[in-house]
Write a structure and sequence with these properties.
mainly beta, 1 helix, 6-stranded antiparallel β-sheet, 2 domains, elongated, 7-stranded mixed β-sheet
């Protein structure tokens, strides 16, 4: 699978990807990203605090979210010294079109501030994870016991109804605001019930496997 390779380069180059604010400078390891749907990769984020006395009690008060993507995991914040902090966020490109990764914070001195990394999610290339999944091949490791069904899907609370099956959504799962008319859903048994692992449809590639222990 094609991956996004994020590499920190010389400190002088960070200015190219930085968004400055009066209280913080937010820095991404890319200026922008354009890649096919289903691509997985890691994005580096740095925060340089510029106030001598930051009013935020914890780095966990910085919020990281996005649109058109899924956040599969992230490292803890690492203190690099000099009020400079870094973390890496693993993302999957989930919906075709324009999306973003965002870091934001609200503090009593400066109010709300954010920085956005633009992300363009392209149509799948030949041999991509999306194509394999649409054709019925589960594209990730641990495929034992994984089945799929393709049909129209109805959302019922925390479950999906598709092809005569009722599939639970894992805790923490979120769905796009609109779903394609027809979707292939991969699922497996977990805790004695079938649980959705992956949704694939036109312009859509939504994973839930990272939410299952």
């Amino acid at each position: 699978m094609k991956r996004i390779h994020a590499v920190w380069i010389a400190a002088a180059m960070f200015a190219l990807f930085a968004v400055s604010a009066s209280a913080c400078t937010f820095t991404f390891s890319y200026a922008s990203i354009s890649a096919p749907i289903g691509t997985v990769g890691e994005i580096g984020i740095r925060v340089q605090k510029t106030h001598a006395r930051c009013t935020l009690s914890s780095m966990d008060e910085y919020v990281i979210d996005g649109d058109g993507i899924q956040i599969l995991g992230e490292t803890p914040w690492e203190d690099l010294g000099g009020d400079l902090y870094e973390k890496w966020v693993k993302i999957s490109l989930a919906e075709e079109g324009d999306g973003f990764l965002r870091i934001s914070k609200t503090c009593t001195k400066e109010g709300y501030e954010e920085a956005i990394l633009p992300i363009t999610v392209l149509s799948p290339g030949e041999g991509a994870a999306w194509e394999a999944a649409w054709n019925g091949e589960y594209p990730f490791e641990g495929a034992d016991g994984v089945s799929s069904v393709i049909d129209r899907v109805a959302v019922d609370g925390n479950a999906l109804s598709v092809g005569g099956l009722t599939l639970a959504l894992p805790d923490g799962a979120t769905l796009p605001s609109a779903l394609p008319e027809t979707i292939r859903v991969f699922y497996a048994n977990a805790e004695d019930q079938p649980v959705a692992l992956l949704l694939v449809g036109e312009g859509l590639f939504v994973r839930f496997d990272h939410l299952i222990a």
